[in-house]
Specification:
Helices cover about 40% and strands about 20% of the residues. With about 350 residues, it is of the alpha/beta class. Strand 8 and strand 9 (about 275-285) form a beta hairpin. The strands form two sheets. It has a six-stranded mixed beta sheet, sandwiched between helices. It has helices spanning about 1-25, 65-75, 105-115, 135-140, 160-170, 175-185, 200-215, 230-250, 260-265, 285-290, 295-300, 305-320; strands at about 45-60, 75-90, 95-100, 120-125, 140-145, 220-225, 250-255, 270-275, 275-285. The radius of gyration is 22 Å and the shape is globular.
Length: about 350
């Protein structure tokens, strides 16, 4: 009896906390099919970024007690430019891969796109909203799945979690039942819906993460390493499901991954970041060609920031191909998916 009471108490508490955090306790009409776009938003573009920059200010001090005491009177800081002058447009229904070495700025970009952090300068629009305003209408139109951070509650069953998120996102019952049935069938997890999440395997949990993220029909889905730690079979299944969702639901997907098989299989377009600078934006097949992924990454990441900046400047001024870019690919605003009407 005590365990039953504790289980119910935890479930009710979680519902209240998450409703307050996500929706501010204010009930608004759920928009399923037609989404309100911002007045300045190109309806063909889900994401528009212009000259976006993010600079982190980091506190530093000397080692030991003496350094700690000195820092009380004079603090020293260093600046880290995580994203620098980024221009990017992603159209409705695109499946775009975002790759780069550790520290390239990928996660920082995702955090700015979802409103978790604010940019230092530049313009950013997602679904017609400025993300960092964190409006409820905006939060109900995107979803994030991170391979290393779970949004599931391990002591609850999958059905209970889906019901919880239905209340948080204020999804009409008919839409909830339709989407639940669709994703349960798509992922083949019908027999797992009434078991606790903590009993599921890593691959099964990732399927549930995706179902929860897609339950409210988001206009854009951000994926950060969704196949990390999965075996070959589970990774292939996740890729298959994501491809079907993108094609059938026309959900715009931005995928970050260090697994090049994910990028090559799923993404028609690929964006490469290094030291916060965009060094490639174009077709995935042109980026990889016949080369091995390791050779492509060495060719791209081996460039220093100075070389990247210089090559990009020469490419812009002289109209020549960037040495880091495969022959025949395009640069700047001429790339596929770039803002075509940004001056309009």
């Amino acid at each position: 009896m005590a365990m039953l009471f504790l289980h119910s108490f935890v479930g009710i508490t979680v519902v209240i906390i998450l409703q307050c955090r996500l929706c501010g306790g204010i009930r608004k009409e759920y928009v399923c099919q037609s989404r309100q776009m911002g007045a300045g938003m190109n309806t063909t573009n889900i994401i528009e970024i212009k000259n976006l920059t993010k600079v982190y200010k980091r506190y530093v001090k000397k080692e030991g007690v003496g350094g700690s005491i000195a820092s009380l009177f004079r603090r020293k800081y260093t600046e880290k430019k995580a994203v620098s002058g980024l221009d990017l447009c992603i159209g409705r229904g695109e499946f775009v891969g975002l790759i780069g070495p550790n520290g390239a700025g990928k996660t920082t970009l995702i955090k700015m796109l979802t409103g978790i952090i604010a940019p230092t300068s530049g313009e950013i629009s997602v679904l017609g909203y400025y993300p960092n305003e964190m409006k409820n209408a905006f939060k109900k139109q995107y979803a994030v799945v991170m391979g290393q951070k779970s949004q599931l509650f391990f002591e609850l069953t999958v059905n209970d979690i889906l019901r919880l998120f239905k209340e948080i996102y204020e999804i009409p019952e008919a839409d909830f039942q339709r989407n639940k049935a669709y994703f349960t069938e798509l992922f083949g997890v019908r027999e797992l819906m009434d078991v606790q999440v903590r009993t599921l395997s890593l691959g099964e949990r990732m399927k549930m993460e995706l179902i929860v993220a897609l339950l409210h029909d988001p206009g854009v889905l951000f994926l950060d390493e969704p196949t990390i730690g999965l075996d070959v079979v589970a990774s292939a299944q996740i890729r298959k499901f994501l491809k079907e969702i993108n094609e059938e639901k026309r959900t715009t997907i931005l995928l970050t991954s260090h697994y090049m098989e994910d990028i090559r299989t799923l993404c028609g377009r690929c964006v490469v970041l290094n030291h916060g600078i965009k060094i490639y934006d174009g077709k995935t097949e042109e980026l990889f060609g016949e080369e091995e992924p390791a050779a492509v990454m060495e060719r791209l990441y081996g460039k220093t920031e100075r070389e990247e900046t210089g090559n990009r400047k020469e490419d812009t001024e002289a109209g020549t191909n960037n040495p880091m870019r495969p022959a025949g690919s395009k640069s700047g605003k001429d790339e596929k998916g770039a803002c075509e009407n940004e001056d309009a």
